[in-house]
TrEMBL record:
The keyword GTP-binding does not apply. This is Methyltransferase. SUPFAM superfamilies: S-adenosyl-L-methionine-dependent methyltransferases (SSF53335). Residues 47-138 form the Methyltransferase domain. Keywords: Methyltransferase, Transferase. The keyword GTP-binding does not apply. GO terms for molecular function: methyltransferase activity. It comes from the Bacteria. InterPro entries: Diverse_substrate_MTase, Methyltransf_25, SAM-dependent_MTases_sf. GO terms for biological process: methylation.
Length: 281
């Protein structure tokens, strides 16, 4: 859990409606890579912790008997259920819970996945709970975007979103320290998941990178949605200045691209896996 920060229910308040449009997808093929690496065959159960609107679990559900998504944000779970209906995924269910609530009477799982959510948790406590609910030989999966491209990319066909200017604008409205719910992240969010998982008793670390490389054509509305899908610029943080902020945000975007169109390269997806020892119950 981030230093000096305490979780509260407003962390992603109001963000769910913007996720589908605003967030870039994980690299195509991430689900197939996981399935091939772990030998997934339609058996066993999947748990997605901090599932948000179901992005990962809905892509993976076909490789399991059942998928369970947990998230403390009811709006995220409602959006996940809508997405499941739209995609005709019938073997996923949704539970309002925090990672710290595990095992939460949910039973055992073959795979437990955290997609850019583990850093929000009490990691040592949660890692121990995940070890408990995994079946012997089961897998803890941590997914995130690769921040740096492996090779010099080709020029984009349109201007890139002006992320530095957007960050400056957010700071002008919300202050210099990153916001998160009712608190702030003075030192950012923690990393070194490997140390946490080793302390918990996981073994046999694996790392895979699924390349993306495609270029996404984005509109100003897409970038606005991205801003409002984030915990550090969630709509509620702006209070009665929300309309002013959006007006200024759109002005920043228009200055960067008068046609309100942008391009950005999809990031590769990093998948890290640790396994529960086979002999451990």
């Amino acid at each position: 859990m981030p230093d000096g920060w305490q979780w509260d229910s407003t962390l992603f308040q109001g963000c769910a409606a913007y996720y589908e449009r605003g967030r870039l997808p994980y690299a195509p093929g991430f689900a197939e890579t996981l399935a091939a690496t772990l030998g997934l065959d339609g058996r066993g159960r999947l748990l997605d912790v901090g599932c948000g609107p179901g992005t990962v679990i809905l892509a993976l559900a076909r490789y399991f008997t059942e998928g369970v998504g947990i998230d403390p944000d009811e709006d995220m779970l409602a959006e996940a259920e809508r997405q499941a209906e739209r995609r005709r995924v019938t073997n996923a269910r949704w539970v309002a819970a925090r990672a710290e609530d595990l095992p939460a009477g949910l039973g055992t799982f073959r795979v437990v996945v955290f997609a850019q959510s583990f850093h929000w948790t009490d990691r040592d406590r949660v890692a121990a709970a995940v070890l408990e609910i995994l079946e012997p030989g089961g897998t803890f999966v941590h997914m995130s975007d690769c921040e740096n491209p492996t090779a010099e990319p080709a020029p984009l066909p349109l201007p890139a979103p002006p992320y530095a200017q957007i960050s400056d604008l957010v700071r002008r409205y919300l202050g210099p320290v990153r916001r998160a719910g009712q608190g702030t992240l003075v030192n950012g969010t923690p990393d070194r998941e490997d140390l946490v998982l080793a302390r918990a008793g996981f073994e046999n670390f694996e790392r895979h990178v699924v390349a993306a490389g495609a270029v996404a054509d984005r509109t100003a509305d897409d970038i606005v949605a991205w801003v409002f899908s984030r915990s550090d610029s969630a709509p509620h943080l702006f209070g009665d200045r929300l309309e002013d902020f959006e007006r200024d945000l759109r002005a920043v975007l228009r200055q960067a691209s008068p046609g309100d169109r942008f391009a950005e390269r999809l990031p590769s997806t990093k998948i890290m896996m640790w396994h529960k020892p086979h002999g451990e119950r």
